[in-house]
Amino acid sequence: MSESLLSVRGLGKAFRDYGTEWRRFASWLGIHTRAKSETWVLRGISFDVAPGESIGIVGQNGAGKSTLLKLITGTLKGTEGSVTVNGRIAAILELGMGFSADLSGRQNVHHTAGLMGFSRAEIEGAMASIEEFAEIGEYFDEPVRTYSSGMQMRVAFAVATAFRPDILIVDEALSVGDSYFQHKCFKRIREFREQGTSLLIVSHDAGAVQNLCDRALLLENGALIKDGDPAEVMDLYNALIAERENSTITISNHASGRVQTISGSGEAVVEAIMLLNADQEQVEFVDVGQPVTLLIHVLARKDIPRLVLGYMIKDRLGQQVFGTNTYHTEQILENVQAGQRVAFRISFPMNFGQGSYSVSTALVSTDTHLVNNYEWRDLALVFSVSNLSRPVFVGSAWVPPSIEVRNL
Amino acid sequence: MKEISAAIWSYRHFIVSSIRNDLRSRFARSKLGGLWMILQPLAQVAIYALVLSRIMAAKLPGINNRYAYVIYLMAGMIAWSLFAEVVTRSLTLFVDNGNLMKKMAFPRVCLPIIIGGSSLVNNLLLLVTAVVVFLLIGHPLSLAMLWLPLLIAINLAFAIGLGLILGILNVFLRDVAQVMTVVLQLLFWLTPIVYMPTIIPDRLRFVLEFNPMVHMVVAFQDVLLYGRAPGMAGLIVIAAAAAILLLFSLILFRRAAPEMVDVL
Questions:
Q1: Domains along chain A?
Q2: Among all residues of chain A, which has the CA nearest to that of B21?
Q3: pTM to 2 decimals?
Q4: ipTM of this model?
């Protein structure tokens, strides 16, 4: 495919242990030696990135995300397979690399942009806009050692994004100082995207991935286990991080056409889940603002010392709208017997905007599903909200306004 | 080889600005700043001159200047300081820049060039200072000094070649840097810089033949002190050694570069 911006084919990376370094030296001299052991941290990775496409890369620690990014940027060389890049890559992974404390901000900008491969004329041309973006005033000509860490970040981000790359690699966990600047950074990243830059975003945050990405890749133990729609990938990722001994993951096609992921050890399961209106009738369509009750029946299959029910309502794009659990509401059930059935009635006004929503449920022992995950069920229930009785509004929340209009 | 030169060319601005930054940041907060670049070797010359001139001065036949030993010392020091600086800094070059190499993709070959360039600037400043000192103590300049650019180029190539090889090995085997600091000291004393080769007993003199730095230093002394062209045999030996080391280091660099980041 000639039109793809980045093409990764059968990429693998092994770290070799030669036992003794002399054997490694001999291998460079053409003497055939065998490495004592090889550790594959990444293997068989293939994917393409089209121009303007944004891709989220998710995976647990040690899944190989950073290695993959290093292979793409070219700081590491792959052991097998290929990475073909048709364009310029910029990475915002570790800002301020190569800054020298005794040089001024301006000199460091020169140095860093040079390190990125730009000529002096290009750097001079961009200097004014870099200085403007960083917004650190007179400090720009002071030595970097007098900077606060936030100021250093500002200059570093300004240089890293001074020239629009064809592919921008962003570590989402990256902190770029105060929230004002953070907004500015994300604004710039979005602008790049609108101008056709492809994004590769590493993130643990489901919201960010679903918000910014068209596609997501899930890495697990050095393999690419899923490449697809961000919402599906994030569901599988959540299931994976909850995966424990003797727990299973079922992925099936839900009636709504989406992919449903159910995981957990199965010691407790959701037997039934339904949405009831004020008349206790089961409904699928709800008017904005109506009082509803989410009824969840849970069956304990084994004795469970502590049982917590959590639920999360997500919108059509998988963005979290509201969620809590009975740990936070201090309604933890202790010593649940095998065979016991529990009904949870969750009543709330449907103050959501128009659209389709899904409910995910989690049966756990504490406030997170990472300790004991009895069952995690995505798309446990799907319902729609329509606006039948309220004035027209947009957005996912119904915040009843009272607007006063007066001539002055 | 073509890729390497293309990479160097496209990063030429970076290399030049890095050399400037390197020199600038080394002395950034010292009062005398860049003056230290020449003060340090000069101080060393002064120390040796003070301690050893009585013993050594008599051993320099054919030179009438009473400061002959100082000139002799300086000639040797100019050759040695470039060599030692490049090798010492190349040893830990990749280890020191490990973090940068892991995070940024740029032609790694820039790193040794920056060191070579910055050391060269240092060395040229020292040379200019030496010439001023020579004029002050009444040592005439000679046409033989036209050999200097060639000698310095060979010296630089030799040092970069050796330094690069050792620097690469040091990434994998950190003992190399430790061993080399000792070896460099030994090599300094195995090279006739503070003493004359004539004080070595004849039956041991052949040992010096195996040290390429002997030929280098002797060539500098020929040019700067005696005002004569360097011996052709010695010149060929060091030029060949420099070419072989440089070529070998580039081959090794190409093979080892992909694995270097793995272990940094």
A1: 6-230 (3.40.50.300), 265-386 (2.70.50.60)
A2: A103
A3: 0.70
A4: 0.71
